[in-house]
Amino acid sequence: MKRPDLREEAGIALVMALGITVVLIIFVASMISYTSENSRNANDSRSRLGAQSFAESGIAAAVSILNQAANVSTPTLLGCTASGLNSALPCTDIAVTGVGGTSYVHGLYTQVGSGGSWAITAYGSVANPTGGANLTKSMTATVSITGGGQTNNISIWNYVYSTAPQGAGCEVDLNGTNVVVDVPLYVTGDLCLSGTNAKIVENTANGGQPVDIRVGGTLTVSGTNATVGTAAQKLTSGLVTGGCGSPPHTCTAADRWYVNSTDAPLTATPPTVDFTSWYTNASPGPNNDCGASTPAPVLNSATFDNDTTMNGTSPSFDITGNASYNCVTNTGSINWNKTTKILTVSGTIFFDGNIISSSTGAMYHGLGTIYVNGTLTLSGTNASLRAGCPASPAAPTAQCPFGDTGSGWDPSKDMLIFAVKKMGATAIDFSGTNNEFQGGVLCDPTSTIDLSGTNTKIEGPIICGKFKFATNTKLMPLPTVTNLPPGAPVPPNAPATIGIPVITAG
Fold first, then answer.
1. Averaged pLDDT score across all residues of the chain
2. Residue 30 and which of 45, 313, 389, 501 are 20 to 30 A apart at CA?
3. In 18-39, which positions are buried (b, 16+ CB within 10 angstroms) versus exposed (e)?
4. Residue 443 lies in a domain
5. How far apart are CA 56 and CA 505, in angstroms?
6. Beta carbons of 73 and 145 less than 8 angstroms apart
7. How many separate domains does the chain show?
8. Cβ–Cβ < 8 Å for 487, 469
9. Assigned domain for 4 exists
10. Residues 148 and 288 both lie in one domain
11. Between β-strands 333-337 and 325-328, what pairing exists: parallel, antiparallel or unpaired?
């Protein structure tokens, strides 16, 4: 029998071909898998870069909001709630939708001395190319704020400021008996002291400000014993641009003008008051009702506006009346307890009608601005609305005393400003006997604040057109206002300096 020749190669080619084919299949499969994985990775990488781009866009959107704001230090600008002058949690992200994704951003403001800073958090969100949850990228940045909405803009809020332009007669006339003005005073037009014992004095013993008096027009002192400062206690500074008496001349002691130094000329500008914007954005307000978390009794939404139109026709509302109420939103609140007589406020609030305060012993806590599309009235004898002491965050136990910043009103912690729209007439009426108010008020240059009630006492800045006085009207020593409540109107010529955003993460 013939033995097989082990060197025969019949069939080896087939084996080799099969082997090569298997290797090629594996190689091709590997290349396909590699290419597909690279493609997926590329798509994923592009999407993640897109998410980062939208996060960066969120930071840019926040900075744009700050640059367009009337008051860059308003703590609710970037979606967070307010806690005094600072922002606080919770925050609601501001969404900005673009092609292929969305930016989400919010920011927390912190007041630091005369400036402040925004801590901004943004994230971008894009579709996941492999399906599933969107891809996101977060980023944080800080933006420094110097001057502007607080330090520079508050200078006029440390004055009683008559904004009515010079015309016929006296724009401000201290015509009541024993009228006393013990605050810095700026009169755009003419100032007269025609009342018996009418005085502009300076008392810094209990923390009141040094009195600076500036008159854009003329000064006439005609009342018996009326005087601007005294020989024994001169005012810190002053300037009467139009001169004293008739014919006008440089004011001297013969005109009963006593100041230690003459000011350099200065032109003030009244705040810009944007009622239309705040009608839309105030919270609580016509377009921002009390939230679901508001405890009973809840203030009726029609109190803010009864017809969805800014026309000042809502029924008059007594904010310190015989009925308690509450209203809380994400960015502000107003609450009144008729038993304790405590009004608490925060944020910016809008009422499309007249506002009354009738309580004889009301005290408020918090920092807030109330826009009134109508008139503001302290209604009746002994009506009184003053800050509560001790200051926030402690619970108030009594009204703060007048003219004592050592143990009295601290406007950096508790400050209520009313911005009143009524034009060409009496906008603010504090003419009741023994009316009292601590806080700030503002009305149009064409309007009047009536302080003609006997024994009316006011402590706080006043910015209005014309003023009315009566027997024993007192403008009490003004503590220095270092911060403004959210939404307070500020002058257009005192912009803040907004720093370049500094990326801190992402």
1. 87
2. 45
3. eeeeeeeeeeeeeeeeeeeeee
4. yes
5. 11
6. yes
7. 2
8. no
9. no
10. no
11. antiparallel
